[in-house]
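Re-running the complex after MR caught last week's input typo. The corrected sequence lines follow. Everything else is unchanged.
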Amino acid sequence: MNYIAAIGKYFIMVGEVFKKPTKWRIMKSLILKEIDELIYGSMGIIIFIAFFIGGVVTIQTALNLNSPLIPKSLIGFATRQSVILEFAPTFTSIIMAGKVGSYITSSIGTMKVTEQIDALEVMGVNSLNYLVFPKIIAMLLYPFAVAVAMYVGIFGGWIAGAFGGYAPSGEFIKGLQLDFIPFHITYSFIKTLVFAFVIATVPSFHGFYMKGGALEVGKASTTAFVWTSVVIIILNYIITQLLLG
Amino acid sequence: MIEVENIHKSFGDAHILKGISTTFEQGKTNLVIGQSGSGKTVFLKSLLGLFEPEQGKICYNGEYYWDLTTAEQRDLRQQMGMVFQGSALFDSMTVEENVMFPMDMFTKQSKGEMQDRVDFVLERVNLIDAHKKFPAEISGGMQKRVAIARAIVMNPKYLFCDEPNSGLDPKTAILIDNLIQEITKEYNITTVINTHDMNSVMEIGEKIIFLKNGYKEWEGSNKEIFKTDNGAVTDFVYSSELFKKVRQMYIEERN
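Corrected-run output:
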């Protein structure tokens, strides 16, 4: 029953985020700040993880395709498909749920504990719009980060394949170009946008409605990460079934 | 003027405010006192419109807050200034930006006009060289001054302070009390202060209401509080050795 109440409260919160907008001049600077914090600030870890995940996918695929009858180009094909369909959008989103999600929960939670949110409300500011809306807009750039992750992941796979001796460069690139379906990129960006909304709002919900002190801020961050990940995984299944099933 | 009429507020099974009625007059420093857990903060947050009472009315110059439309409530909120117990300054903003924030949000003034007003209120609270500092870089007393500056920057009709002296040394606490009283008189504001600091009661308590277990136990001025025979009030007022001695001296003097 508590979960149902929390889900209802979440959707009410989302509705409130879009009411009574903050002055555009102020909102613009908040959005730019959040883009810097949430997207630009995460590019390093996204690139690092994508590169090595791409490499690992290539090595594992190569080690499992040891029949001489299977062309080496399939290693490139499998890497491309794995990275584009799953690793870049979903795996990166789980990482972002941890990095960005805990930042969002702890920053909003700290504002709650120190009565800064009450201060906004007393002034007549829609605190949800002021705090959460810029994060949602900033996260609209998240597909750009995932596109970079796709590119770097495949590049990492090529490096591992070509320089590790698992797949010749030409064969790998031939595999990358094999049976390419452009809709897979569309599918990937659609789910990335949905995940972006989840990453911006679920941690905000846990920060905004937390009760207690500093210890509870930490607990709320952990809970937010768990629930953001759970929601991403469930939505990943639903979107995949709807768009590719 | 704020008129409070028989307000009740509960959270789940906990009945916090039990039929409080009083009036807070314009141009006076009104104090709400009582022990921790007596309902002071819930009462203040109800006055601010952050909590909606289940029963009773709170009227601001004749306007009942919860009968107003959302836009009217927002307009009324802009006439309120609040000094929170922990100052509640925005960590990511400088002192200047904190004070400018309400003007930036709700007025169409130019940057220059806002800057002039910020300089004026910061000077009014005796903060001259802290404009560019962040809240974490200034002392607790200075943070309180910034919070007061932010609360008065929009020329509010109502000023609410939740334990403005908590965590401050006695000398700074008196300075803050005097500053709030001066501002109240100067701008003819209705000021309501939550406190359990007896120095504040003595210094600036023009009207005091004493809460106990969610009820209004006593109401009067700082002159009357030391003469009352109400047991709950005397227990609270004379809980410290210093005030016990003050009372003893008063009784000896009278006899």
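None of the earlier attempt is carried over here. The CA atoms of residues 168 and 207 of chain A lie 50 Å apart. The mean pLDDT of chain A is 93.
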